[in-house]
Specification:
By secondary structure, the protein is α+β, with helices and mostly antiparallel strands. It contains 3 helices and 12 strands; from the N terminus they run H-E-E-E-E-E-E-E-E-E-E-H-E-E-H. It has helices at residues 4-24, 138-141, 167-188, and strands spanning 27-35, 44-52, 56-59, 63-68, 79-80, 85-96, 99-100, 106-111, 119-125, 129-134, 145-148, 155-158. Strands 3, 6, 7, 8, 9, 10 and 11 form a 7-stranded antiparallel beta sheet that branches. It has a 5-stranded antiparallel beta sheet with strand order 5-4-2-1-12, with no helix packed on it. A hairpin with a 7-residue loop joins strand 8 (106-111) and strand 9 (119-125).
């Protein structure tokens, strides 16, 4: 029995696994949600944000995706805010023990999405709290928005905390298993 094709397949699976692990180690995904307390639009805003992996202070989110928002705001979800930012006011997060430190983190972005006029999004921003609004600043001018000035409903959770095997790791395990079986078959022959 020739092992050359099997060995090259194993080598390929190891390379794919290492590349996959390197990509996974570069970023951590966090879920967020907050509900209306002071605004005039009832409902909850949910989404994800991507930060560098590990513990750190003062790092910026590279992706902020709103996955659901009240229909009254007029957004088509999901949408990524970062590519639509007109004015980045603040974008700084601190992660300790794999969790976002809300007191040491803040995000405030002015953005345009689709045909909607200037919109505001913030998480834990001093004086504004957490908000998503259209047509100006819902915390000061009363326009449509989901607003929680004191962050009483703001929740972050580490989306990466629930560990599931990634496909490349599974592929590597299958490759190692096949290599072991082939070796055993070769010894019998």
């Amino acid at each position: 029995m020739k092992l050359k094709p099997l060995a090259s397949g194993l080598a390929a699976s190891v390379v794919v696994s290492v590349v996959g692990l390197a990509d996974a180690a570069n970023a951590a995904t966090f879920n967020f949600s907050f509900s209306n307390v002071e605004g005039n639009t009832t409902g909850t805003v949910e989404g994800t944000l991507e930060l560098p992996d590990g513990d750190f202070s003062g790092q910026a989110a590279t992706s902020v995706i709103v996955t659901s928002a009240p229909a009254a705001l007029g957004y088509t979800t999901p949408f990524d805010i970062i590519p639509s930012v007109v004015t980045p006011v603040a974008n700084s997060f601190t992660v300790v023990g794999g969790e976002i430190d809300v007191a040491a983190s803040q995000l405030a972005l002015v953005f345009n999405v689709g045909t909607l006029s200037t919109s505001v999004f913030s998480l834990s921003f001093p004086g504004f709290g957490s908000l998503l609004g259209v047509n100006g600043n819902p915390a000061t001018d009363g326009n449509n928005g989901v607003v929680d000035v004191n962050d009483t409903t703001l929740v972050f959770s580490n989306a990466d905390a629930v560990s599931t095997p990634e496909p490349t790791s599974t592929l590597m395990l299958v490759g190692v298993g096949l290599f072991g079986m082939a070796t055993k078959l070769k010894k019998k022959a």
